């Protein structure tokens, strides 16, 4: 007879303990392996910083051939998905759409481009990418949904932006990231996770849009960029970006106080000169 079934209540722990140990022996190695995979994904992703994505060619959701070279000249947000994904890609795309709308309102409607690339070949065709865009109600004219029948092109893009994936029972396990490219098509920042804080994406994008790293505009353009850079601030309570006019108020008050002080000194100097004996 099995001792565990016949033992008194006081000895149940002795029967349960082996089962718990067996469960831990099964779970802990899996958890450690998952942690190793996550660390590896972050390492590969971060190692891609500074990489040039090159002039790889894709087809957009309308079947038009597009080269990544076309999008140089302004920052680019790049996400890689597979259209059959029913969880992480779905959540990440909805989150990206929400933050993109906030960023456009704060930084300008045409200040950056968004690219979503489908990597599941031969499933992710232009028609599938168009359906993916419709599924999530994305009509942004500067958001392009790209795919390629050439697996080498997809592999090259993944390598250059540090994106990892592997087949799984759910389709694919893959890095969930938004890659920010600078004006020259180089990897500038990586933003991770299905749900990420708004500033995590918008702050580095703001730096690029307003020329914090490099500014090739004239003096007035540089002044304008700096004003917009420092006056566009995140409102955590409303989860939005607003233009903060308090900087101008502070400058105005400072100029007023300085001007008043200089005027007072000049008047006092004039009085003192008049009061001197001839």
Number of strands: 11
Globally, the shape reads: elongated
The helix/strand order is: HHEEEHEHEHEEEEHHEEH
Measured by DSSP, the beta-strand proportion falls in: 15-25%
Mean pLDDT: 80
Plain-language structure description:
The chain has 278 residues and is an alpha+beta fold. Among the domains are: 3-46; 57-196, Glutaredoxin. The chain is 49% helix and 18% strand. It has 8 helices and 11 strands. It has helices at residues 3-6, 12-47, 88-107, 126-135, 151-161, 198-209, 219-231, 246-274; strands at residues 57-59, 65-67, 76-81, 113-118, 143-146, 165-168, 171-174, 177-181, 187-192, 232-235, 240-243. The strands form 4 sheets. The chain has a 5-stranded mixed beta sheet, sandwiched between helices. It has a two-stranded antiparallel ribbon with strand order 1-2. Helix 3 packs across helix 6. It is elongated, with a radius of gyration of 29 Å. The model is unreliable at 1-7 and 213-230 (pLDDT under 50).
